[in-house]
Amino acid sequence: MERKVFFLTLVIAWLYGAAIHAQMLPATAEQQKVMLEKIMAASEKMESLICDFEQTKELSLLSEKMISNGKMYYRKNSRLRWEYLTPYNYAFVVNDKKILLQTESGRNVIDIKSNRFFQEIVKIMINGVNGSGLTDLKNFTGSYYRSDKKWEVVLAPVKKEMKQMFSCIRLTFNVDDFTVDNVEMEERNGDRTNIRLTGKKQNVQIEDRRFHID
User: Fold this and answer.
1) 172-186: per-residue pLDDT in tens?
2) β-strands 66-75, 79-86: how paired?
């Protein structure tokens, strides 16, 4: 179960993000339509994406925050690398029909077709990148907020397994390029995870080796 929680946290972290602030106002139905159109249009134009991330984990049983940093690489046609660099090395790589889990102590290759759990993970990841994640009503329902400087979406899980882990997931979108800037996840047990994406570079060349799986 702990392994599933880790990977679901990783996936949700790649697809969604943010924090609702006092100045944010609920979006009207028409505004919500415009937000979705712009976010999906921007995602459709995205052939590749590289960015840095900082993840801050607040555990209800610990006073100290757990901070880790890493890098994310994405390329259309189901290519994704989510890599932690500090304080430990860990990589989650998706290359079409295979997944690589790589740690300092070893590596594990998984055939997506034979594993329903990872099928769902990859589906959610790719949906998040191509923009269809916000309209994935099988997994989430969304509430939309906006201000002059940012847009935010609060996602409530629909499926039983996710409901048992997450209260909600908050996403903040940059109104200049309509991509996610920040991710905040509130878990049922009181834990909180925040992921800040920085240094985003779209439609740049990414070496095949970033997604290589034997």
Assistant:
1) 888 998 888 888 888
2) antiparallel
The CB density around residue 171, as the number of other CB atoms within 10 Å, is: 28
92/99 Cα distance (integer angstroms): 7
> What pLDDT sits at residue 205?
96
| Long-range contacts formed by 207-211: CB under 8 A, 24+ apart | 210/73, 210/79, 210/81, 210/93, 211/73, 211/75, 211/79, 211/80, 211/81, 211/93, 211/94, 211/95
To 10 degrees, the CA torsion angle through 70, 81, 166, 23? 60
Q: Residue 203 corresponds to which amino acid?
A: N
123-127 long-range CB contacts below 8 Å, 24 or more apart? Answer: 124/11, 124/12, 124/15, 125/11, 125/14, 125/15, 125/80, 125/94, 126/78, 126/80, 127/15
Q: Which residue has the higher pLDDT, 82 or 131?
A: 82
**155 contacts 162 by C-beta, under 8 angstroms:** no
157 bridge partner residues: 140
